[in-house]
Amino acid sequence: MAEPGIAIVTGAGRGLGHATALALAERGYRVVAAARSAEAAEKVVRRIEDAGGEALALQLDVGDPRSINDACERVLPLIAAQWPGSAIDVLVNNAGVGQFAPLAEVTVADFDLTFAVNVRGPLLVIQSFAPHLSDGARIVNLSSSLSRHVSPATAVYAASKAAIEALSRSLALELGRRRIRINTIAPGPTATDFNGGAMRDNAELRHGLGQQTALGRVGEPSEIADAVVALVSPGMRWVTGERIEVSGGVLL
């Protein structure tokens, strides 16, 4: 029987990344939980191990190119030592930031940070880890339903998510010769701690956004995580270069 594959999840310290790391571990994946905070990454590892899974912690700031290179160099020997002969089969680029402001208040710093983390970061992570992925590996990049519909004060964030979708399609073609599949998951309103946890903690906001969805509520982190797990499964082996929205039918 084949050993479980290895999955790397960025931004695993909280929110969708945390839920995705747990969901992959529950399905038997050995998980590298990458987070900007080493402490946050270790907490995810402890939770996975307490549930009987296997995991490694990795400190990684996707907004810092040097951190990406260093993290790749550090984690490969750890993987080889802990899971000999195993290949990296899944890479989930979840880490992201949201800088929201109306046009008059958008700053150069906000723009640069958003694109550094949401676009350049995933690109460099893929570039660093691609030589170490198994043939037939799966990459999932996190986008947003905001790349499809509009909302006030989200122009820069939405543009960064549209960019990651275009990047994913191009790389799907480039890496397809190795049977590596690349897709994007585009979550809709979800109750996480993103953007200060407003959607999780503000009942009025959650209700209002929920009424904009066909299913009448906002999503839960586990529902996005389940979609990621489904997308990397063998049942989706003929799907690549696609954007899959997981939004409960928001603003149809």
What features would you describe in this structure?
By secondary structure, the protein is α/β, with parallel strands linked by helices. It has helices spanning 15-26, 38-50, 65-82, 108-129, 155-175, 198-201, 203-210, 221-231, and strands spanning 6-9, 30-35, 55-59, 88-93, 133-142, 181-187, 243-246. The protein has eight helices and seven strands, in the order βαβαβαβαβαβαααβ. A seven-stranded parallel beta sheet has the order 3-2-1-4-5-6-7, with helices on both faces. Strand 1, helix 1 and strand 2 (30-35) form a beta-alpha-beta unit. Helix 1 crosses helix 8 (221-231), helix 3 runs parallel beside helix 4 and helix 4 runs parallel beside helix 5. The radius of gyration is 17 Å and the shape is globular. The N and C termini lie far apart (44 Å).
List the helices and strands and how they pair.
Elements (H helix, E strand, L loop, with lengths): L5 E4 L5 H12 L3 E6 L2 H13 L4 E5 L5 H18 L5 E6 L14 H22 L3 E10 L12 H21 L5 E7 L10 H4 L1 H8 L10 H11 L11 E4 L6
Parallel strand pairs: 1-2, 1-4, 2-3, 4-5, 5-6, 6-7
| Low-pLDDT ranges | none
Number of strands: 7
User: Major beta sheet, specifics?
Assistant: 7 strands, parallel
Terminal residue distance = 44 Å
Strand content bin:
15-25%
Concise structural overview:
By secondary structure, the protein is an alpha/beta fold.
Keywords:
Rossmann fold; 252 residues; 8 helices; seven-stranded parallel sheet; alpha/beta
